[in-house]
From TrEMBL:
Membership in a protein family: Belongs to the outer membrane factor (OMF) (TC 1.B.17) family.
Signal peptide range in chain numbering: 1-22
The keyword Signal belongs to this UniProt entry's keyword annotation: yes
Transmembrane feature ranges: none
GO molecular function, one term: efflux transmembrane transporter activity
Assigned keywords, A-Z: Signal
A Pfam short name: OEP
Presence of the UniProt keyword Signal in the record: yes
Name of the molecule in the record: Heavy metal RND efflux outer membrane protein, CzcC family
InterPro entries xrefs: MdtP/NodT-like, OMP_efflux
Organism: Vulgatibacter incomptus
Length: 433
């Protein structure tokens, strides 16, 4: 049975670049509280995650782009000076300064049919970036939750293994006295020693995995993960998902990544419209004033209109590019829905199977195993049970407890994945203050 921790591998690799454990903030991340309180976990990740901060910066960039798109073209100011003599002149009685003429003018380009689609495209891109921010936040919340859950599972597993090892050592000490008095054979005692050594190896191996999980959790939450008070009940209460998913496709269409794709498609369509409207020439209106010291008409005002001729570049290629991009995003959106539906259905089926299996083990197998172990202990103490039978009953009980714990962890991961696939964390983040 495999408890999926693929989302933990990347943070573990980045841990070397993160601050040393002693350099982490004094505030600790409460695992039990975060597993039970989605709003607290969302707020923690929102205020600390560098990925979320980067996504927020992209929103700020897109919003600045909206402001830029709303601006009008800048006017142009020009100044001229004429009648500057650079050679000999027949009119020697006129000073050079009296021949000069100078003028000032201002011109303004008038956009026709372009400002609207440009603003719309920028605004849609800004909306898409905000949806991407929500998607990034939901992604990091899901990663943080699964990291916390893995640390909690291994912490509980460590407790079970250490309890079993302590019992084995206590039993081994008692049996050593029996061995010294000749009431126990050497081979039976050696079997007890081997069993204890095997359990010690399991404890050490699980402790190493726990340290790795705590390091990954700290790398994601940017604070030491406090798992001391967390237990199996916290795993059961975490990553809640509705028992019945009435309309998964509707939930998928509300996911921020899907909404961002649709907004990006609309922005591309507006960019295509903007590119096609480059075929409409934008006239430039100008007005200028001239003062001539040489001619009798010394002060004049000129008006002008300039119209570019869209003979070659009419925006046709940029329009084709934007149209192809919109078509790509449209197909990506459709693929996202189909992939999401398959993922949700698969995870829902997996959740049902795990819940049924865990229920049977919790309600039937585990109480039965506990009863068998207790009976075996009493029977062995009274000499009615062999050492082999006692070791077998204890081993089976420990393995069953660990199996139930691992099933709880796997069910928790499936619920977390299902919550992520349905966009529930994104919805919670959207409704958060």
């Amino acid at each position: 049975m495999t408890f999926r921790i693929s989302t933990l591998l990347a943070p573990a690799l980045l841990l070397a670049a993160a601050p040393a454990r002693g350099d982490l903030p004094a505030e600790r991340a409460p695992a039990a509280a975060f597993l039970r309180d989605d709003a607290a976990l969302i707020e923690w990740v929102r205020t600390r995650s560098p990925e979320v901060a980067a996504a927020q910066s992209r929103v700020d960039q897109a919003q600045a782009g909206v402001g830029s798109a709303r601006l009008f073209p800048n006017p142009s100011l020009d100044a001229t000076m004429g009648n500057v003599n650079v050679g000999s002149s027949a009119q020697t009685d006129v000073r050079g300064a009296d021949r000069l003429s100078w003028g000032v003018g201002i011109s303004q380009e008038l956009e026709l049919g372009k400002r609207g689609p440009r603003i719309d495209a920028a605004d849609l891109s800004a909306q898409a970036s905000r949806e991407e921010l929500r998607a990034s936040l939901a992604e990091r919340v899901a990663d943080a939750r699964v990291a916390i859950g893995e640390a909690v599972r291994l912490q509980v597993r460590q407790t079970i293994l250490e309890e079993s090892l302590t019992e084995s050592r206590d039993h081994l000490a008692l049996e050593k006295v029996r061995l010294q008095h000749g009431d126990l054979s050497g081979i039976d005692y050696d079997r007890l020693v081997l069993d204890a050594l095997g359990q010690e190896a399991d404890v050490r191996r699980n402790r190493a995995e726990l340290e790795s999980a705590l390091a990954s959790c700290a790398a994601i939450l940017l604070a030491p993960c406090e798992t001391g008070e967390a237990g199996p009940d916290d795993l059961d209460a975490a990553a809640t998902v509705p028992a019945e998913i009435a309309d998964p496709e509707e939930a998928l269409r509300e996911r921020p990544d899907y909404r961002a794709i649709l907004l990006g498609r609309s922005a591309a369509q507006k960019e295509a419209t903007l590119a096609r409207r480059r075929a409409i020439p934008d006239p430039t209106l100008s007005v200028s004033y001239s003062h001539d010291l040489f001619n009798e008409l010394t002060d004049t005002v000129q008006f002008g209109v300039g119209i570019p001729l869209p003979l070659f570049d009419r925006g046709q290629h940029d329009a084709a590019l934007a149209t192809a991009k919109a078509r790509e995003l449209d197909r990506t959106a459709a693929g996202t829905i189909q992939q999401g539906l398959g993922e949700v259905r698969g995870l829902a089926a997996q959740r049902r199977t795990l819940e049924e299996t865990l229920s049977r083990l919790d309600e039937e197998a585990l109480p039965l195993s506990n009863g068998i172990l207790e009976t075996a202990r009493k029977a062995f103490a009274q000499g009615e049970y062999s050492l082999t039978d006692l070791l077998l009953a204890r081993r089976e009980n420990t393995e069953l407890r660990l199996q139930v714990l691992d099933l709880r962890g796997e069910l928790f991961t499936v619920r977390n994945d299902l919550r992520k696939a349905l966009g529930l964390d994104a919805a919670a983040a959207r409704s958060a203050p």
